[in-house]
Q: What sequence folds into this?
């Protein structure tokens, strides 16, 4: 196969990764490309370079979702949060819901590494979780007599936990619908967005909507989202980055040492 | 066994207890509070649970898992069988509830637990056994789907810790014996059991392949896998031969049996055996692939460097700290998280329908209707009644026919419609119909009639203002005209004040368009 054909194949692989609902198990072409990526270091390198051109990164290639891509701050391919939540007042709460869904889905760090791990998350569960956390903070601050009221001219200084508690969990409008501003609606919107992008799937209407997670969701969080947020928090001086020896691999630590030794020259290590 | 030492016997008790424990969650379904609370007393839930395990086990074709919706669909049919005449939603609700209880969605780790005693070197101990019945795993594309665990299959085939191979041989011998005596009903049961056992067999191999995919080093090819695979391959080959014989036996019996009931049973058995044979060919296929798959995984896992990523405790390291942030400060970290979770998206190319969608999108802030949807002037859903009666149409036709080649003014005709008469009169509204018809004549010249040389009435605007109590505009001149065939209308001797407009070709007015 000529070099140009290789580039076409690599670009096709990136296109398949960007399209919704494509998986190696569903497309012979995709499966072939995944095999090439795994066995041909040069081909893998072309794929990496193409994603680099789009300001994206290769997070990993997995046999179920296929090529998993990550975003960089420069890319035009990332979703815009302003598009997801046009109302600025709802935005922090919606984003909190996204984080709470992930935290509830993967309560232990090792859940993120388990290849067989799928779980369920419901709207009610997420809301109750965030509410109980917020109440714990409220309780703790009440004992220290701290003033939680934000300055009148700076409503943005109100605590996130307080803003969440201020909203009702659910309710009904005159038209017998759920209001869009209650927390149930915000959590449901977050889950709907995840479902639209194939990260979760709705399994029932129980508990205001129950969703099952997918492998791709887990990988996206494990390989990028959790680390990105941790770094943002560290930049704000809140949390420490896990030290190097705490960092571990998808395999066990002993295995990773083994495979590093086994790695042949020219293997598709990120350069 | 009675004479043996209790210590030695206890192992058997422990293993049987483990099997019995698996049955408990099923039986508990029928005594659960939820059953009474939801008014489902009429259903036999444990039996529905068996149906659910059945469908997951049988549909799981060794490598793919079954979506929960499929299971719910299937089980709701059984619910309908148990309690006919209830709404379909109730069947589905019952089926979903039973399925989710089998997954044990109420438990964080999905495990059922049971304390079971066992005797070890240190003496008697009670240990907590945990097991699952239906398990949610990612399917071939990484979405959640269901498989039946070994424990579940145990409940089904009541065979615990036995050598699959010997069990299978015994089952086949029994099946053949039953067939010889033509006890087909029992033979069907045996064949059914044999099929479930071949599923267990496949699960074992499948599990090894999966383990291989995860970590090729965890699998010892030379001692473990190779032996198992060779044994299994040999076993499956001989079994396929046996099944071939059984199929022939069934066919022979079919030829000599006249009893309709027996024939139906035999046909069912035949189908089942064919299905078993198909399953075996899949199994053989799988076994043949184990070797190449092992080498492929070896290649893949040795070549690819494992991804390095930090282990993050989502709850403690991310969720709890960010909750205490202010609304302004939390946006940065939270946006970083959500952007990364949703990953790269295929950019949308803007095309015309998108603009429409964007413009027509209703702001999510609005609760209720932004604009009143129903309006008094909207045509109702009721019958559409014709505005003008037939008599009025006829009257107008007659009036228009009075137009001569000298021409008659619209104002004159309007005057005529307001005279009392059949279909006309001062308050009849026929004048409006006439005005409409004239307007139509002006816009749509009867080209066809003119082209074939038929007489036709045309309306001409010569600039005269209409002076009328109800209508305004031009006082059209209505002229009866007739052209020579295949001669364009402009060559006719009609005093056409506006040639250009006349020559425009438009459809002939249809009578139906005016009514309504």
A:
């Amino acid at each position: 196969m000529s070099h140009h054909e290789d580039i076409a194949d690599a670009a096709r692989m990136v296109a398949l990764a960007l399209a919704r609902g494509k998986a190696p198990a569903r497309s012979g072409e995709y499966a072939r490309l995944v095999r090439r990526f795994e066995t041909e270091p040069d081909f893998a390198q072309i794929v990496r370079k193409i994603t680099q051109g789009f300001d994206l990164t290769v997070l990993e290639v997995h046999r179920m979702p296929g090529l998993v891509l990550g975003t960089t701050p420069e890319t035009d391919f990332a979703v815009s949060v302003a598009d997801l939540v046009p109302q600025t007042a709802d935005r922090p709460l919606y984003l909190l819901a996204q984080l709470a869904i992930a935290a509830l889905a993967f309560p232990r760090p090792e859940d993120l590494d388990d290849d067989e791990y799928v779980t369920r998350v419901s709207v009610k569960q997420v809301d109750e979780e965030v509410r109980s956390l917020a109440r714990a903070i409220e309780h703790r601050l009440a004992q220290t007599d701290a003033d939680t009221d934000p300055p009148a001219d700076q409503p943005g200084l109100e605590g996130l936990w307080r803003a969440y508690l201020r909203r009702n969990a659910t309710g009904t409008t005159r038209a017998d619908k759920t209001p869009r501003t209650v927390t149930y609606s915000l959590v449901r919107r977050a889950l709907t967005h995840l479902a639209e992008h194939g990260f979760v799937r709705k399994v029932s209407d129980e508990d205001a909507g129950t969703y099952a997670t997918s492998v791709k969701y887990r990988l996206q969080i494990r390989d990028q989202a959790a680390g990105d947020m941790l770094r943002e928090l560290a930049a704000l001086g809140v949390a420490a980055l896990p030290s190097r020896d705490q960092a571990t691999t998808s395999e066990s630590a002993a295995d990773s040492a083994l495979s590093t030794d086994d790695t042949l020259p020219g293997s598709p290590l990120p350069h | 066994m009675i004479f043996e030492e209790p210590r030695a016997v206890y192992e058997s008790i422990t293993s049987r207890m483990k099997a019995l424990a698996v049955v408990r969650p099923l039986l508990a379904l029928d005594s659960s509070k939820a059953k009474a609370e939801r008014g489902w007393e009429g259903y036999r839930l444990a039996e529905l649970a068996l149906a659910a395990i059945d469908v997951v086990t049988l549909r799981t074709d060794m490598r793919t898992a079954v979506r929960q919706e499929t299971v719910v669909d299937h089980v709701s049919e059984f619910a309908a069988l148990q309690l006919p005449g209830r709404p379909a939603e109730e069947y589905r609700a019952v089926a979903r509830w039973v399925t989710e209880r089998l997954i044990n969605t109420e438990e964080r780790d999905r495990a059922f637990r049971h304390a079971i005693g066992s005797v070890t070197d240190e003496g008697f101990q009670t240990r907590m056994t945990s097991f699952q019945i239906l398990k949610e795993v990612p399917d071939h594309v990484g979405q959640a789907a269901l498989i039946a665990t070994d424990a579940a299959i145990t409940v089904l085939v009541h065979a615990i810790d036995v050598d699959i191979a010997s069990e299978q041989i015994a089952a086949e011998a029994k099946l053949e014996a039953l067939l010889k005596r033509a006890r087909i009903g029992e033979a069907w049961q045996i064949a059914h059991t044999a099929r479930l056992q071949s599923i267990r067999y496949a699960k074992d191999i499948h599990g090894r392949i999966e383990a291989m995919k995860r970590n090729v080093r965890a699998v010892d090819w030379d001692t473990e896998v190779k032996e198992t695979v060779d044994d299994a391959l040999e076993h499956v080959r001989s079994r396929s031969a046996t099944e071939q014989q059984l199929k022939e036996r069934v066919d022979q019996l079919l030829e000599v049996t006249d009893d309709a009931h027996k024939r139906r049973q035999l046909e069912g058995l035949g189908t089942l055996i064919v299905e078993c044979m198909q399953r075996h060919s899949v199994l053989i296929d799988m076994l043949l692939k184990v070797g190449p798959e092992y080498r492929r995984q070896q290649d893949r896992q040795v070549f690819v460097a494992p991804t390095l990523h930090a282990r993050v405790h989502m709850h403690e390291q991310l969720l709890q700290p960010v909750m205490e942030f202010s609304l302004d400060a939390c946006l940065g970290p939270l946006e970083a998280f959500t952007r990364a979770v949703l990953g790269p998206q295929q950019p949308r190319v803007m095309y015309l329908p998108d603009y429409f969608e964007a413009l027509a999108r209703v702001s999510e802030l609005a609760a209720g209707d932004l604009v009143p949807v129903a309006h008094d002037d909207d045509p109702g859903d009721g019958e559409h009644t014709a505005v003008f009666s037939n008599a009025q149409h006829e009257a107008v036709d007659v009036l228009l026919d009075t137009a001569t080649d000298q021409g008659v003014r619209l104002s004159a005709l309007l005057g005529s419609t307001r005279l009392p008469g059949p279909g006309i009169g001062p308050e009849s509204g026929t004048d409006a119909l006439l005005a409409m018809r004239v307007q139509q004549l002006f816009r749509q010249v009867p080209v066809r009639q003119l082209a074939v040389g038929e007489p036709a009435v045309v309306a001409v605007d010569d600039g005269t203002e209409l002076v009328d109590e109800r209508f305004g505009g031009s006082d059209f001149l209505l002229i009866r005209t007739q052209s020579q065939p295949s001669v364009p209308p402009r060559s006719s001797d009609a005093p056409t004040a506006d040639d250009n407009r006349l020559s425009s070709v438009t459809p002939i007015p249809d009578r139906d368009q005016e009514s309504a």
Summary: Confidence is low (pLDDT under 50) at residues 242-271 of chain A. Residues 41 and 264 of chain A are 10 Å apart (CA to CA). The beta strands of chain A are 56-62, 66-71, 120-122, 200-204, 210-213, 248-249.
